[in-house]
Amino acid sequence: MFYQHVPDSSEWQWGLVWGHAKSQDLVNWEHLPPALVPEANTPDRDGCFSGCTAVDIDGTPTMLYTGVVRKPEPQHGAFEHQLVAIPTDPSDPDLKVWKQLPGTFLPAPPADMDVTGWRDPFVLEKPSEINPYWYVMVGSGIEHKTATALVYRSKNLRTGWEFVGPLCESNISTMWECPIMAKLTSANPHPAASNNSHLQRHMFCVSPDYCVNMAQYYLGDYAEGKFDLENAAGPQPLDLGDVLYAPNVLTDKHGRSVLWGWMQERPALRPAGKYDSSCCLCVPRVLYLSPDGQAMLQEPLPELKLLRQQHTAWTTEGIPLSLLPGSPVDIAGTVSGSSHVEITVSKGDADSFAVVLHPFVEAGVAGAAGAAIAYCWRINTLQ
Question: In this structure, are residues 25 and 254 in contact, taking their beta carbons and an 8 Å threshold?
């Protein structure tokens, strides 16, 4: 796994690197040295921004990413370049050392297209028996008009790219950062399940404008560098919280679409620079379609059960613990830093229910926040 990382700081700053970690089960991880580090006098000297990885036709792991160079003062922002990196030793199982290839791999957007940004390349399609091209999209926006993702294609992953046009456009926002796409099926996400699903749709996800906003997604149809946004369902929030941004997705060895996202900090709870770390990645989640193909479902990766070390059933005199309206219940024994809780709800004649979690606050610790989890049967919605 690769991720945006600021070494030796808990605050965002120029000079971003690509952090690197490895895992055999997507649950237990080992940190490795950074894979991409800005180099002097190169197109990424002020930061290695977001992108993706792909395996080339010849089997070479390949990074596609945005390198930036800050604009001279008093200008703000940075010049953006789309770059390629490959491992110095493709046979190394850890792929520890990478090298940036000379030049840029994508031509700039057309001169008459006044873009608000141009970053975060993502592979849309790989060559196949019916398609000889690689397709890549890059997050962008057209000044005073729409947000968009610009599509390019080539028969060679590293060179020969040509501009195709916008994937789609929306006037809801002005810039799409970190656009991603995944082909979803209604197959059961559990590895041991028998999957015979034939329902398929494409999930197109964007992070609009800036990281104070929430990632959004659409469900619709994609083909040859075009996504039918007009007839797609959405936009829908990818996450019910307000801190998940810039996700990325992969297809694992079981054929599942697995997604991670950047979980931000909120200054009111953890002021920037006051701690020795900041932000994290969410636990991996599996994306799949509902049985009728009309909705996207998400659930934590089933393998995360490997992390459970202690099983506790809360009871009162041998009777399973009951939660009654308006009656707080103190759950004893939760001494670890996190817990996994399963709650079975009897609907009765209710239309909805909510569980409110209050944190245990140690003396002198301010700003701790609780959470409310609500479900409505009538509209089949969890909040």
Answer: no
**Amino acid at site 139:** G
Q: What is the three-class DSSP state of 117?
A: strand
- Quote the CA–CA distance of 348 and 74 in Å, as a whole number: 65
Q: Which residues pair with 64 in a beta bridge?
A: 52, 84
Per-residue b or e along 225-253, where b marks 16 or more CB atoms closer than 10 Å to that residue's CB: bebebeebebbeebbeeebbbbbbbbeee
DSSP state of 346: -
Cβ neighbours of 201 (radius 10 Å): 22
What pLDDT digit, counting tens, does each position of 231-279 carry? 999 999 999 888 899 999 999 988 999 999 999 888 777 777 778 888 9
Number of helices (H) and strands (E), helices first, in the chain? 0, 27
Structure tokens at 72: 């001279």
For residue 234, the Cα-to-chain-centroid distance in whole angstroms is 18
**Is the separation of the CB atoms in 27 and 304 below 8 Å?**
yes
Count of residues making up the chain: 383
168-177 pLDDT tens trace: 999 999 999 9
Taking residue 5's Cβ as centre, other Cβ atoms within 10 Å add up to 17
CA distances from 3 to 25, 44, 84, 130, 262 (A): 18, 16, 16, 33, 9
